[in-house]
Amino acid sequence: MEFPKDFIWGTAMSAHQTEGNNTNSDWWKWEVEKDGRRDLPLEASGPACDSYNRYAEDFELCKQLNSNAVRLSIEWARIEPRKGMYDNKALEHYKKVLKTAKEKGLKTFVTFHHFTNPIWLSEMGGWLNFKTPELFSDFAEKSAEYLGEFCDAIITINEPQVYASMSYIVGTWPPNKKSLLMSGIVQINMMRAHNRAYKKIKEVYKKPVGIVKNISWCEYSSYTVFDKLLAKILFFFNSDFFLKPVSKNSDFIGLNYYFTNRVVKLRIRNPDNPVNDLGWWINYDGLYKVLMSLKKYNLPIYITENGLADSHDRQRTDFIKKMLTQVHTALSRGVKIKGYFYWSLLDNYEWHHGFWPRFGLVEIDRTNGLKRMPRKSFYDYAEICKNGIVK
Q: Coil, helix or strand for 158?
């Protein structure tokens, strides 16, 4: 299967998960204030992968991977550590990071919000505050002014509905709330934030600006018509409910795909084989079905995350090839897919799970100075990136 010559091949990372010592963020505060009353997070991020200092080494790995792009994020908590006060040193640091990536021949896809918030914002109510969309768009405009020259594409917000769910329904992530109403307010504010930020960014930056949505396919058993109805409702709320209000202010859609949910007798009951180390059901054709569902937007699509927790690296190469088979099929049927980013380049901090889930093409030896050790799948994916062919 041959992919277009201009297809983007890359890997994805986020700042908090790799940089380390993100001390002005709500996540860092939550990690270090853990006491005996709660089990999560399983561990603190601490130095993470030390990519704040070792980014050049990481981009060299991208180059060895034969990839032509990298997706990464900047930290609002570093750039605006206090409301309305921008840290030029932090902006200069990210400029240096992005310049280094460009010097390595990598296109840069830069995310402005990847789950974490400045502490001062969380003290104002975070994404429940109806002023937050304006505050975020101000930060986005400032960042685009300063860094836009070195960005090939800007992503406003990563996985807004995952954030709204984990933080405000499940309650696993800070601020640990359990309220459907709060989750709805957060989602509306994130829609407003994207739309405002898009317009402000485009005033100073003429390249593509989009949003990244995690979308799980939802299938149903043959038991009842109610299973089919529930599957369709769940998929709508996971996809079009958020995308339709922001699609007119998006130059592309970023898709993060990890798994499919199966509705059986009005419950989510997924097969337990094959699964990744986190127990997520691996369903390849779900990616094809999600991609086909996005065709109606008539926008370029980048698969901005697709990966596997696989500490022994037994399934990863097969996983990548089978997922790319689905991508190729969707491409052949007219879906405007422009690129694929494997999650992730490095084993990193997987939020409340800590460091044990291993998504990386590159292993991080946490007992040996965070040494980077490419896995076999690294070289297998490098072959795909080099030739643009899946065999």
A: strand
